[in-house]
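Researcher: Let's continue the batch. This sequence belongs to NADH dehydrogenase [ubiquinone] 1 alpha subcomplex subunit 12, and it's 187 residues. Same format as the previous ones, please.
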Amino acid sequence: MARHPIHKAVNSPSPDTQIAIYYKKNSQWINNQLFLVFAYKMSNIAKYLALDKVANFFNIIKQNGGIRGSLFKLYRQDELKDGQLVGEDNYGNKYFENPRYFYGRNRWVEYSDKFYMNYDGSQVPAEWFGWLHYKTDLPPHLDPNRPKYKWMLDWNENLSGTTGQYTPYSTTRPKIEAWQPKPKSSV
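Model: Same format as before. Here are the structure tokens for NADH dehydrogenase [ubiquinone] 1 alpha subcomplex subunit 12:
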């Protein structure tokens, strides 16, 4: 029959003294084991009562800057997420990742405050675009093999829908002549 580790041979004649010495030497181990058993049972109860969801909610609120910061991010981005900050580009955009979320939703960008509500996908530089869309697993600051040629331009915002948009010059005559109303003359 195998002996329990509590009954180790100690130079003391009394078994009670042996147990007391063992517990004193290994109290850290025993306390940790009891805590792990207690935490395991509590985690099952917490899952049953959905307390882990409540804890996750408070973690998201905490990571997004408290209640005020969370409400502002919710207003600005329509969702709240928690994740690890992977990096920041030259324009102030912050890139996050959380592997608990679904593939395709576990990497995201939080646009710089200078864009406020006028942000769009064209404001992500090309090097971060590849990481966001899973073309590479290495963010730009960790990838030493990323090419940077002198003919590569710096990022420019897409100006479509603004007064600075590109309008091509056409040499063909229009098929329809637009009606121009004559101004009313005052009598």
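Researcher: Any comment?
Model: Residues 8-49 form one domain.
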